Amino acid sequence: MTALAATAGCVSSGSSSEPAAETATPTETATSTETPESTPESLDDWLDDANGYDGEPRRLGPQTRPTVMVGEEMDGGLAFDPPVIEVPPGTLVRWDWTGHGGQQNVVALDGPFDSGRTNAQPGTGYRYFFEETGEYRYVSEPHRDDGMKGAIIVKEPPSSGNTKVDEWLAAASNFDGTIVDRTDTDTATVTAGAEGNGGKFAFDPPAVEISTETTVRWEWTGHGGPHNVVSKGDGPLGSELVVEEGSSYEHTFEETGTYLYSCKPHKGLGMRGAIVVE
Ligand SMILES: [Cu+2]
What we know:
11% helix, binds copper (II) ion, five-stranded mixed β-sheet, 18 strands, mainly beta, Immunoglobulin-like, 4 helices
């Protein structure tokens, strides 16, 4: 019993920043088995029962004005749509009430934002400007126990060091700042319809570096609907819009430069790619 009491005393003094925690009487110590330091729940765990969340945040690039719908029917319950977005610091996020599901509000768990009293009016809006990086969990209070939860993840976009590539791919969920080096091959392959951007809406790898005279070959997975490969602006790329698995499109790059492209139907979702020719 003495040993146990000593241990409990240690724990309680360790969790306090005050040095004077040794004054607990034996009776107090013996009964103070309350609240072991609970480890904070991870964002993924907390979002486990969030309606409409597939486990992948929707990543949005700089200069976007994201809107989250408040009160969409998803997974058979009420949801924020999209439930989880990832944005750079300095993003104004707007919430729009659909009018579905009755009274709603938008309340951050740890306080930074709060839309105030609940409201059922479609067209109600709330905005918050996110300056600081962090994970902001929020709920609609009347529906929090039914899975109406969301999160805004504010973080610096991935950086490869190539500004054109970084800006273009900031919205591509599968871009982590890596430009895959394929400068040693004559033919580099990129998959169209790879996992990413909330479905099979990605190019993989999203960014590739090649040498001049290299052919890039895009191969279709057959997933995610019709995709194409189209240069941003006046670039050389322009494939058909195709669906079939095994379809391909090729281009041989003769000149150095940074070539940005997207799939037109899914550009807004982040289906974008870049070829850097050195
Ligand atoms: Cu596409």
